[in-house]
């Protein structure tokens, strides 16, 4: 066996094991990573050599590092994602920075985010799946919650739980604000 085929075999097995350990389907990994389902399958079978960009996307989705993939074993102990390593969705014209705190396998089930608002910014959302609820805890500043026709104002330490299966929004007033948002699908 050549060194190249050993690496492919180890990489394929590690990716497959990491995916299964997180309870993800091929479709789930594809959704989280942006790598097509067929490409993930080919890599897991050792039929394709992934690019560095593809490996990066897969390792981020599976929350493993390159060395971890080649080791082929999950690391025991406490899993820590350092602040600078957490995925961030920057503003996109909304003025709201979203830092993803939940594990990739929680997508569509139980998601946790840190939200950072600049003054006057808003996070407006279309309805999520039926029965979906959001839980928002304000850490700093003041925010206004809108869920359908209902409106509530929140300050530091306040928590709101509301239906997210209708049009909803979180708006900052004249000051900046920071909050933790939990999206819980039914």
Describe this structure in words.
The chain is an alpha+beta fold and 186 residues long. It folds into 2 domains: 3-71, lambda repressor-like DNA-binding domains (434 Repressor (Amino-terminal Domain), Orthogonal Bundle); 83-184, Jelly Rolls (Sandwich), CATH 2.60.120.10. Helices cover 28% and strands 30% of the residues. It has 5 helices and 10 strands; from the N terminus they run αααααββββββββββ. The protein has helices at residues 3-21, 26-33, 37-44, 52-62, 66-71, and strands at residues 88-89, 96-100, 110-117, 122-125, 133-140, 143-147, 150-154, 159-163, 168-172, 177-184. The strands form 2 sheets. The chain has a 6-stranded antiparallel sheet with strand order 1-2-3-10-5-8, with no helix packed on it. A 4-stranded antiparallel sheet has the order 4-9-6-7, with no helix packed on it. It is elongated. The termini are far apart.
